[in-house]
Amino acid sequence: MAEEVPVTVRDGDREETLSVERGTTLRRALRDADFEVYAPAAKVANCSGRGICATCGVRVWDGAGEEPDADHWHDALAARYGYPRLSCQLTVDQPLTVELIEKRYWGQLLPRRE
Ligand code: FES
Q1: Rounded Cα gap, residues 63 and 51, in angstroms
Q2: What is the pLDDT of residue 51?
Q3: What is the distance between the alpha carbons of residues 20 and 28, in angstroms, rounded to a whole number?
Q4: Ranges in the chain, pLDDT < 50
Q5: Are the C-beta atoms of residues 97 and 61 closer than 8 Å to each other?
Q6: 30, 43, 46: which to mutate for ligand 1, most atoms within 8 A of CB?
Q7: What angle do CA 19, 52, 39 make, to 5 degrees?
Q8: What is the pLDDT of residue 102?
Q9: Residues with Cβ < 8 Å from 34, sequence gap 6 or more?
Q10: What are the structural domains of the chain?
Q11: What is the pLDDT of residue 110?
Q12: Cα(6) to centroid of ligand 1, in Å?
């Protein structure tokens, strides 16, 4: 039996903890639970999880409050420069907290402002 991992998702006022099969991509887990990672235009025009379009960005932290390591070059750039992480390039292999980002048209992937 596959191990389940908790993923807490915040989307505005909505917060829900999902039980996600270890090894699932974060994009798939979010979409399966009816959380939308895309802006309206990107919902129909995205790279289907190939790590190219950069429209599936979310904020994400592990149990220690750190961003998970990046495996994919494009996600590594996002991590390095403080942009939202590519949910299609993150595998759920530990408890995570995810914050969805309001996107109006496309990806609106802006660096974090602190
Ligand atoms: S779906 Fe295109 S980069 Fe994630």
Answers
A1: 24
A2: 93
A3: 10
A4: none
A5: yes
A6: 46
A7: 65
A8: 85
A9: none
A10: 8-99 (3.10.20.30)
A11: 59
A12: 23
Distance 37 CA to ligand 1 centre (A): 10
User: Which ligand 1 atom is nearest residue 49's CA?
Assistant: 1
Pair 93, 23: CB distance under 8 Å: yes
Q: What is the pLDDT of residue 52?
A: 93
Only one residue has tokens 């403080």, namely 82
Spacing, Cα 27 to ligand 1 middle (Å): 9
Q: Tell me, what's the pLDDT at 103?
A: 81
Report how far ligand 1's centroid is from the alpha carbon of 84 (Å): 12
* CA of 50 relative to ligand 1 center, distance in Å: 6
Q: CA–CA separation, 49 vs 8, rounded Å?
A: 21
Pocket lining for ligand 1, CB < 6 angstroms: 46-47, 49, 51-56, 86, 88
The answer to whether 37 and 11 are in contact (CB under 8 A) is no
What's the CA gap between 96 and 74, in Å, rounded?
Answer: 20
pTM of the predicted model as reported, rounded to 2 decimal places: 0.90
